[in-house]
Amino acid sequence: MSQLKTIQDEDSPPWLPRLAVHGGPRFLQIADALQAAVAEGVLKPGDRLPTQRLLAARLDVDLTTITRAYDEARRRNLLEGRGARGTYVAAPKAELSPVLDLSMNTPPPPDGVDFDDLLKQGLSQVLMRSDNASLMTYHLGGGSDSDRQAGAKWLEPMFGHLDPGQLVVCPGAQAAIAALILALTQPGDVILAEPAAYPGLRAAATQFGRRIIAVEADRHGMMPGMLEAACRRHKPGLVYLNPTLQNPTAVTMPERRRRELAGIAQRCKVRIVEDDPYWLLADAPPPPVARFAPEQVVYISTLSKCLTPGLRVAFVLVRDPHERERFLAALRSFALMAAPLTAALATQWILDGSADGLLAGVRKEARLRHRMARDILAGRYSGPGDGLHIWLELPAYWNSAQLARAAASDGIAVTPAEAFATGSGSVNAIRISLGSIKDRGRLQAGLQRLSHLLASRPEPFSAAVV
Fold first, then answer.
1. Distance of alpha carbon 127 from the chain centroid
2. Whether domain 100-112+356-455 has CATH 3.40.630.30
3. Which H helix or E strand runs over 89?
4. Helices and strands: H and E segment counts in the chain
5. How far apart are CA 285 and CA 294, in angstroms?
6. Residue 391: C-alpha distances to residues 63, 240, 292, 416 (Å)
7. pLDDT for 123-161, tens place per residue?
8. Cα–Cα distance between 105 and 245 in angstroms, integer?
9. Which residues contact 145 (CB under 8 A, 6 or more apart)?
10. Is the dihedral of CA 161, 163, 169, 172 positive or negative?
11. Contact predicate 301/169, CB 8 Å
């Protein structure tokens, strides 16, 4: 139980939480205990909470801890303030938009990591150590020296020591992909990709008048023989690969396949764009393709999938100086730069170790969510157990667009295979993203509803008449 007693005089608060010595931040323990008390009915809507000073005195903690706990409880819609009358348990908030979003690939919020505190501390350090004027002006060189040094450190697990001068700091991976298409290809050029690929590639290629042609893949990713034949036939401007926990199939390409594709790129003199947002989330992934053909491969690593999308920071490794200048010129034509303030925050977190702690929390939470999905989707789940998403092949009585519509009518958003198709056909599957629902209990409910839907057959379509 999270409460000790319920009595009504002011000297003895009506509700007191128990605090554990090793239970994590105290303000979160208090907020969690309050949430449990409401869920168990010990505290009911309209109940008055102890004053912050009284609760601080009874728990022998500082007032700031209680203030943060109450702020966190308000953020969870558990409390409401009524001016001088005090703080009260809030009535349940009507859920006007009950969609459970399993469609957006974002990192799950890590349990036990106080993100608000991390943000405040990081920004405080940035503002103390930086020239504020430089945070509010143009940076035309693809990031400051410090930002590129942080990028080199972030990429050490993949490449070891890197020259920071070979890195460009970008406002996200999508901007990097678009700028690389502009810099390295011409209108009408072919871009080769797997049959199911990141939709942002297709969006950028279409916008710039490039054609995407699908190269057949197997359970290990793009097939070498098919790539070589396509290179000789189409003379592509680029090959796009997402070899680790591929979006959407979740396939991690083995090292031998990576070496083979790198060798083909060298023989055919074609550039590979290696979009690798999930490498740091994977369990013992092989070295990047860029390790096997350094001069042929441009490598992209974004913080959006490992830390948080709000940073809008990606690091791009472009070893050829002439290509790097062309890439920067293309980037400046539509995105100019990463926002200096968020880039500086990313740099601060990387250099002081906060990013590693946040990454570890995201990896742990992602694995917990995969285990949950495996239990609920038993017999259908075939994921690798890490990363942010599952590629779920459907029973024959469902097609992916049909299931996505049925799920939407049941308040669940998933992404059908058609959204990822680069060719004329697509696999009968959906992508389920596990990180976008913050609360683990709501994720569980969404997966259970989806499992029931998969087990049933689609209902005949009937149009409503009003």
1. 26
2. no
3. strand 87-89
4. 16, 16
5. 18
6. 48, 20, 28, 10
7. 999 999 888 888 999 988 899 999 999 999 999 999 999
8. 12
9. 164
10. negative
11. no
Q: Which of 297, 294, 285 is nearest to 387 (CA)?
A: 285
- Cis, bond preceding 248 (omega within 30 deg of 0): yes
Long-range contacts of 391-395 (CB under 8 A, 24+ apart): 391/248, 391/249, 391/250, 391/429, 391/430, 391/431, 392/429, 392/430, 392/431, 392/432, 393/427, 393/428, 393/429, 394/428, 394/429, 394/430, 394/454, 395/454
The ranges of the chain annotated as CATH 1.10.10.10 are 1-94
Residue 169: partners with Cβ closer than 8 Å, 6 or more residues away: 142, 143, 144, 147, 148, 151, 313, 314, 315, 316, 337, 338, 343
- Confirm if 461 and 391 have CB atoms less than 8 A apart: no
- Beta-sheet pairing, 87-89 with 429-433: unpaired
- What's the pLDDT at 345? 97
Q: What is the dihedral of CA 177, 182, 187, 190, to 10 degrees?
A: -40
> In sequence order, which residues have a C-beta less than 8 Å from that of residue 306 and are 6 or more positions away?
107, 277, 278, 280, 281, 359, 362
What is the token pair recorded at 389?
Answer: 């998403």
Whole-angstrom Cα distance, residue 42 to residue 411?
31
Top-tier CATH class for 140-354: alpha beta
pLDDT in tens, 241-289: 999 999 999 999 999 999 999 999 999 999 999 999 999 999 999 999 9
If one looks up domain 1-94 in CATH, what number appears?
1.10.10.10
Q: Which of 198, 150, 151 is nearest to 316 (CA)?
A: 151
Contact 139, 300 (CB under 8 A): no
What is the CA 176 to chain-centroid distance, rounded? 17
Instruction: Report the sign of the C-alpha dihedral through residues 317, 322, 328, 334, in that order.
Output: negative
Question: CATH 3.90.1150.10 region(s) of the chain?
Answer: 100-112+356-455
Closest CA to 183 of 329, 336, 301, 296: 329
- CA 203 → CA 181, 212, 232, distances in Å? 11, 10, 25
Could you tell me which of 299, 447, 449, 268 has the C-alpha nearest to residue 372?
447
Least confident segment among 91-95, 208-212, 286-290, 355-359? 91-95
Q: How many CB atoms lie within 10 A of CB 71?
A: 14
CA nearest to 414, candidates 386, 447, 368:
447
pTM of this structure? 0.80
Q: Hey, what are 128's tokens?
A: 């103390």
Number of Cβ within 10 Å of residue 308's Cβ equals 21
| Location of each CATH 3.40.640.10 domain in the chain | 140-354
